[in-house]
């Protein structure tokens, strides 16, 4: 044995924290935040809280059993904080599934609700009201300003100078249902009775009504309700083979629907080459291109529409939106180019509640706040901050987290190498006071209110790092 080796063996064993860290399978220089390893909000405390469980047991007898829910009962919210019946505060990184862009119980929105509901909530679409047209105008004018639907940012239109138009619904599903109907009507008007085919893509989520479900190719959602609507083809999302796209979208296709950033499907972004190819082929065969921006739209991706910054040749003919438009008050909308609008005539489509003055007055207020330059510069700063913090995760937990981070703006995701782990992270984080969502089969999604602060991002990411450390340690045990 050489002298240096003997010397090393004789030395007392000093544990180098960095080295022990390496041995445990973490990356080199970085250390995870371990401040939140102890559960502060255990589900078990809620499960053993008799008054809460009485309410849940009672309600379960009457509510249809369609959701799997943890045993907590949320009683109020403010900003990004939700409070349960045990007065425990949760930091909400779900925003009611990408809905409450301005946070919970916002003062400005409360005022609009109070004023408008004491004036007029509902009068039906038999008459005009003050706010539906006001919101439609704001959506169109902001789209011209920020880009989208064929308008380049600043107001130039690619191919039809005439006015874009809006139809209001009550939810995202209903917006997509209407958009599919408009595609069919446009197809028949321009290409004859056989132009009825619809194309959607793998991992899409467009809703649960018969039409929207038919373009949501997930067996879990579709199988119990088959047969679905006919003439639907499913293409591969981000497939860039010209041949495959040409075969998929043919002369009988009337509409193509896709999410420019898939939300439920796993926070996957559409590649610009794929979107350009699909848009080009749709135009070639005279099919209407529908972008479902229900989750990624209205500034969540950092721009008004996820496609706002794309070249106009990748813009759609119809945009559907919903979730944040009235910050949680039910609303949806379909915005169409004039070429589509021309084929829709009175009586073809309608709704009792859609476009009612209360929902649309709130929408006007929400859109004016979201499009405010200082709001947008703050959003840019916080979303970059979140993006930087997220970069630590694959480095810290290479055995657990996929290298490629997903999403942009404040629709972000981390992919897991093991598909059992996303729901484990969601549970562990909830038990430490942070609410997260899974997405697709292998991801966790971050969709906080667009008002999230850097401190709140620090807290959420601290909890996430602590929880991922627990998962890594559990794997090693
Ligand atoms: C992209 C997308 N489209 C459609 C829907 C359906 O919207 P809603 O639940 O409002 O009917 C959702 C809901 O999560 C969605 O994320």
UniProtKB/TrEMBL annotation:
Pathway assigned in UniProt: Amino-acid biosynthesis; L-arginine biosynthesis; N(2)-acetyl-L-ornithine from L-glutamate: step 4/4
GO cellular component terms attached to this protein's record: mitochondrial matrix
Enzyme class: transferase
Single GO molecular function: N2-acetyl-L-ornithine:2-oxoglutarate 5-aminotransferase activity
Gene3D superfamilies: Aspartate Aminotransferase, domain 1, Type I PLP-dependent aspartate aminotransferase-like (Major domain)
The keyword Transit peptide belongs to this UniProt entry's keyword annotation: no
Keyword annotations: Amino-acid biosynthesis, Aminotransferase, Pyridoxal phosphate, Transferase
SUPFAM superfamilies, per the entry: PLP-dependent transferases
Compartments, record wording: Mitochondrion
InterPro entries per the UniProt record, alphabetical: AcOrn/SuccOrn_fam, Aminotrans_3, Aminotrans_3_PPA_site, Class-III_PLP-dep_AT, PyrdxlP-dep_Trfase, PyrdxlP-dep_Trfase_major, PyrdxlP-dep_Trfase_small
Any one GO biological process: L-arginine biosynthetic process
Family: Belongs to the class-III pyridoxal-phosphate-dependent aminotransferase family.
The protein, known as: acetylornithine transaminase
Native organism: Kwoniella mangroviensis CBS 10435
